[in-house]
Amino acid sequence: MRNKGAVVFLTIIITLLCVYYLSFTFVARNIQQDAIDYATGESGVVDLSKKQAYLDSIYNLPVYNLFGAEFTYKEVKDTELSLGLDLQGGMHVTLEVSPVDIIKGLSGNSQDPAFLTAIEKAREKQRNSQERFADLFYESYQETTEKPLADIFATAANRGRISRSDSDDAVMEIISKEIEDAIDRSFIILRTRIDQFGTSQPNIQRLQGTGRIQIEIPGADNPERIRKLLQGVAKLEFWEVAELSEINNSLVAINDMLVKEQQAKTELNASDLKTEVQEEAAAGEEELGDALSSADTDTTDETGSDLDAALSGDTTAGDQLDSLVNNEVSPLFALIKARDGLVYDVSDTAIIGKILRREDVQSILPRTVKPLWEVKPTVNEQTGEEYLQLYFVRKGRGGNAKLTGEVITDARQDLDQYSRPAVSMQMNALGTRVWAKMTADAANQTPKGRIAIVLDNLVYSAPYVNGEIPNGSSQISGNFSIEEAKDLANILKAGSLPAPTRIVEEAIVGPTLGKIARDQGIISIVSGLVIVVLFMIAYYSKGGFVANIALVFNVFFILGILAQFNASLTLPGMAGILLTIGMSIDANVLIFERIREELNNGVKLRAAITDGYKKAFSSIVDANVTTLLTAVILYVLGQGPVKGFAITLMIGIVCSFFSAVYITRVIIEWMVRKGDESKVSFKTPLSKSMLADFGIDFMGKRRLAYLISGAIIVIGLAIVAVQGLNLGVDFKGGRSYIVNFQSPVAATDMKLALSESLEGAGTEVKNFGSNNIMKVTTSYMVDDESDTADEEVKNAVISGIESFTGQKYVANSSQVDAEHFTISGSSKVGATIADDIKSSSYEAGIFSIVIIFLYILIRFRKWQFSTGAIVAVVHDTLFVFAMFGIAGVFGIRFEIDQVFVAALLTVIGYSINDTVVVFDRIREYLNLGTSSDRIKVFNSAINTTLNRTLMTSFTTLIVVLILFIFGGEVLRGFSFALLVGIIVGTYSSIFIASPVVIDLDKKKIE
Asked: Rounded to two decimals, what is the model's pTM?
């Protein structure tokens, strides 16, 4: 083997990188356990707010020293292998920015009958269409009236952008741009808000091509607060900045008071102060949602508390205070990092915030000012330290800002006179008057005054004012990048047009349910790994031992690379690892079977090893590429759990190829070189005579196979047509709840009891893994996606269960007993997003078939092979659906959801995997030209690959069977589809794909 050194070097580098990144995971887990121990009371119940306070208190403190490099807890959390919501609990939300409100706002809330009719028509069309709402609106408007769009949108607010002479195309271009800008604004605002969750590691992303924003907040335990936080109206304000000279006397007085206090309390124990900081951090975190979602509340003393709790809670406060007493300087002055303002290290903001929250400190500050932090820290390029500036702004009448964002009519990224990025904005008549007065007052100050642009109580910019701006047209310049200027322009436009968001998809997983799923996933992986390891040794002797070493490397690499990519490990992701364990054996089985063939033909061991790897290589590449293609399609078109599964599967395929092909060869050739060749074997007494000497006429039985397959598919699909599939909320919309009881409950009786409270709407109740956990799914109020409807449906479910069981609902799962039940998880999918998921699922299936057809055509250069492979894929897909229908006859109804789609595409990849291996051997035999009897050639090729086919299917089947047994209810339908798919995929590669090639071949077969 060439390049052994490169393989060894690469293996060592990847291993070290994986060890490095996974070490952060172990550190984070230990700290998490410390937090749990700290927050566990005498009753054994964990106080979640106390746990979060502990983690917040060390968020910006060094907790991990690696070869002299110190990492804060924040950096550790950012680098660890994080768990998905389904494994640790939390909240998943998809928000949709309403294009209806944006279009209405752009029209000046026109009451034109044709305009309003077109809006309603577009809403109806969107229910069954994937087109953009703006296009549907224009289509509906043209159907309703012949008036030009400019008649509606050429308003005073749009002067300079839309005139009555503009064409419909020009107006539509502006409408589309406004909708996109509104989505961008919402994304920026929401991203800033959820960043306040600190240690919760929230994740936010725009779903391109839609008006939707997807957010995941692991560990969230207050869904109502999060809903308010995400859907609260953006609060854009303009405040006059108070110069330090105005409050200098107050700051000095505060410093003197703190110094005297510390001198009088030198005996204060630092640990007591640490506890005090932690408790106040927890209190501030509890108030964060209200502070951000309230548009008319004076948050003078909330701002510091909320932001500090989210950013950090420095437990070294006691030490710092004591060390500063001797210098008669309090932290308020001593911690300042810049001479031109109140600039502090991010890790010190908890101390400053704690000072500013004190009532005696607030009584010293002028009542006309309030403190605000800037939105994001400035990074010191030399030291890497992060600094935040504290501003004091002047209150207006009633403690409010003099000007709010509703007056802005337009804002855009521009260039200043020096061609540097800047922001231009335009205000309406009311804003122009107030703005002229504010800017005149600021410009007349000595030195020049500043005006702070504030969104959600965070300062985005505080530019100096050089002169009065009388016409409402302003330019804000500063040290902006182009992206920062665009972001600020979007922020300024946040108040110009209404762009409310609504939750169209939501999933809540309680920590208890997450722990159950995590335990089930670990049991499945460990069990599958152990069984495969034992089987490989029993069947392939020393070769099996080497394959197992590669398998361990494979799993280790997957976890390490997931950590490097900062990807989350989800329950479907665990299923992907488990599936990779089964599929990674495939390459080694191919190689070892080839080596055994060469040995049986009398070839020496070293030559047999070389030939085995060489001859198996093309089959391994083809099998892995086809599976990789389906995984890529899953990633591109899938969402949520499907995307997590696809990421893990892609990484697993690459890692298994490297470990099975290259690492095993290095080890085997080293063993042959270092030891006695007779001791390096690939067979055992158990496997010597197993699965050998086949002589089956598969091609002669192809018509019988067609008949059997056709009959099963027709019967199964007929049952599906009559009974229908058990579609989950992913595909039909609705709401579902996981309900926990202490003792078993009859699902059928509970369904009847709920029908009254849910007004006869479609409702399903079934066991969710055990008799005392139920999953309730209902279409009640499916078309109403408001928070009010969510609460109404939940209350109706709770009311029905209470009437049926006589038990009371409690929010805390630890209180479940004979008299109480709880809801440990829930999900909601709006009807529109359900249609989108169905459409993307169809697209994924079609794309998979087309891409695989093209790949097989390129590799085998005959359309008959491509067609045979696609017929087998379609056969396997229909067979899985048929078996789901047949299972329903026996009372086993698996849910069809997004994860099922992942299973179906995996079946497609697996089926092609098997088919390609058979086709590869057929191509090899045809090229040899040993016989003109094509049926004989096909039979010989299939018989010689049958050993590998059955071995691979058996090992993968074991792994998936374990997943089916131990994987939990969430993956039950997924694993059943894989079980059927593996069996029928093996069958179809022999009895469907190859026979179809024979029947389509135009050459005469004697």
From this structure: 0.66
